[in-house]
Design goal:
This protein has 411 residues and is an alpha/beta fold. Helix content is 31%, strand content 23%. Bound molecules: flavin-adenine dinucleotide.
């Protein structure tokens, strides 16, 4: 059997390793002591802390669903839930998500303004925005833009929205026309086209359960950060051993310093220029509530969302507690966190927090083209890139699994 080294035991690397294990001798290298990458969780004070986000699963790809459920006993090990997300407006108004389908919840004057906006937008159909601010204005109108889309997205992106490119957006959000928005409001239609409009979640252990199961039976070297990979005479050397192929599921920003024997210099400045965001996940006890996600456009604090992981499974809460994660873009100090928590709805009480430096890759107009060119050139040398920060793509777990399946078909 040919030997394959997989770098990274996040969901991408674990999927690749499982998909290849019948055809190759596969070894996985993971710098942390547990599998999971971004989907890692740990128990704190008896409740489950998702170190990043609050990962739920679903997919639009049938082949991904078939493969994924082949690894689990879905009926016994998972529960299904409908998304119950709201936007917390200033005051105590909770508007169901997506906000554009529920503007009938606002005061009559605001409703009139939104309807006027939508009629104006219909009249200029065909405009082609080239940045996120114009896209949102043209799609939803000035009133919803000012009330929600601008303040919320500025918290997430931490920059003026006219500096945010549009390239990441395709397929990520429902794109209702003004007529559909009006129809949805008149008929109180719930949005079903989000991939997570309904979702699956493990009964025990949250997303760590997924990583633990996918890692079972694999040859994984934990606590091993790969700092160098060398191409020597058509083979690859990693940690003193020889491999025929490498699947790199880590962060592409590490590659220039890591790769020896293959010319990667011509992409170094492109890789250096790739932008990204991190996330500070603050694990809190919260007031009981029925929601899964609470979006927060309010300017009175810097957090943009609460993920009520305590509502995803009863196993996530220590007895008598309700827990969730309050999310901030980029790194926020503990003092700032404690200060902000005082102004966040549902009285979050701090338990602990974790900062992930790399959570959201940002794509510019050239990112996909240059990444594809670089990936093709490296693949010719037996080095394959696969994963959220290896592909520099805004993958959900299922899309990461899909990318792993697509790659493994070609190997
Ligand atoms: C806030 C947030 C919320 C999200 N919510 C959802 C959700 O609800 N549902 C969903 O489907 N998706 C969600 N996602 C997306 C999901 O997290 C990712 O698609 C997925 O986890 C990416 O997995 P990955 O394996 O590609 O990368 P990662 O999880 O980043 O894994 C990379 C792994 O490689 C290891 N590694 C890196 N470099 C090296 C090295 N040199 N040597 C050894 N090991 C190395 C790392 O330690 C890590 O374990 C969310 C993402 C974020 C940021």
């Amino acid at each position: 059997m040919e030997r394959v080294a997989v770098i990274g035991a996040g969901i991408s690397g674990l999927s690749v390793a499982r998909l290849l294990q019948d055809r190759y001798a596969v070894k996985v290298f993971e710098k942390e002591t547990v599998p999971g990458g971004l989907i890692r969780c740990r128990r704190v004070e008896g409740s489950l802390f998702h170190l990043c986000g609050g990962h739920v699963f679903n997919s639009r790809r049938q082949d991904v669903l078939d493969w994924f459920w082949g690894q689990f006993d879905r009926g016994r090990e998972f529960r299904k839930a409908d998304r119950n997300a709201v936007v917390a407006m200033t005051g105590s108004l909770m508007v169901p998500y997506p906000i554009e389908n529920h503007f009938y919840r606002f005061a009559p004057d605001i409703q009139r303004n939104i309807i006027g906006d939508l009629l104006r937008i219909s009249a200029v159909d065909g405009a082609c925005p080239d940045n996120f601010a114009d896209f949102l204005r043209l799609r939803f109108g000035e009133t919803l833009y000012a009330l929600y889309f601008k303040p919320y997205n500025e918290k997430v992106w931490r920059r003026p929205l006219d500096c945010v490119p549009l390239d990441w957006l395709e397929g990520k959000l429902p794109m209702p026309s003004p007529a559909e928005i009006l129809f949805n409001n008149i008929n109180h239609v719930e949005e079903k086209s989000f991939v997570h409009a309904s979702f699956w979640y493990g009964n025990t252990g949250g997303s760590q359960f997924i990583a633990d199961r996918l890692s079972e039976g694999l040859d994984i070297c934990y606590g091993t950060e790969i700092g160098q990979i060398s191409s020597v005479g058509g083979a690859w050397r990693i940690a003193g051993e020889s491999y025929d192929k490498i699947v790199f599921c880590g962060n592409v920003k590490r590659l220039p310093a890591m790769v020896q024997g293959v010319d990667i210099d011509r992409w170094t400045s492109f890789i250096d220029s790739l932008e990204f965001h991190g996330t500070t996940a603050v694990f809190c006890e919260l007031d009981a509530n029925p929601y899964s996600w609470i979006y927060q456009p309010g300017a009175e604090h810097r957090s943009h969302r609460i993920i009520c992981t305590g509502n995803f499974s009863p196993d996530n809460n220590a007895p008598g507690k309700m827990t969730g994660t309050v999310e901030f873009t980029d790194e926020v100090s503990k003092d700032e966190i404690l200060d902000n928590l005082q102004r966040i709805p549902f009285h979050p009480r701090y338990i602990t927090h974790h900062y992930n430096q790399y959570t959201y890759p940002i794509q510019g107009p050239e990112t996909r083209r240059v990444m594809a060119e670089m990936k093709a050139a490296l693949a010719e040398r037996g080095l394959y890139l696969c994963g959220r920060f290896a592909d520099w793509e805004y993958y959900n777990m299922d899309v990461a699994v899909g990318a792993a399946m697509d790659l493994c078909k070609t190997l």
